[in-house]
Please model this.
Amino acid sequence: MKAWDFKMKSKPEEIVEKLNSALGSVNGFVFNMARDENDSVKFNFRKRVLYPDQILHRNRIIVSGRVLKTDTENETEVEISFTQHLATTVTTYMLIGSGLFTLIIAIGGNASAYLPGGILLALGIVFWIALRGKFERDIQKYKTLISEILQFKIGFTRK
Model:
């Protein structure tokens, strides 16, 4: 999970309205929001998936956030976190785990299991490394998208 927070010179309602109108279901995203008891608004969004096989290709990141009103007038704090989709994480651990399990079985006396175990383990590690890089690139794309929607420059953020 990666966190990103920043302050903006606008009201929380305006920020939520901009995000909702830009990331609504029309634009290929699923956008959910809920009001909190202490005048904050929680939201999350992700890319819409039409078919189950698209989870690993399109829907790798879930963006969760909170819009908080600060003590300063007309200033709002926005906290956003980026997490990987559960299916992506489970797939990676299943590949690595089944590779290790197969190698353990091969140590027990079944020498023909070394090759499939090694291949599964190597695939799992390569998949994991590729996903880490893709995760960082996707976070940067989402930061750019959010900054364009809210009309501010990324260089002026705190994190």
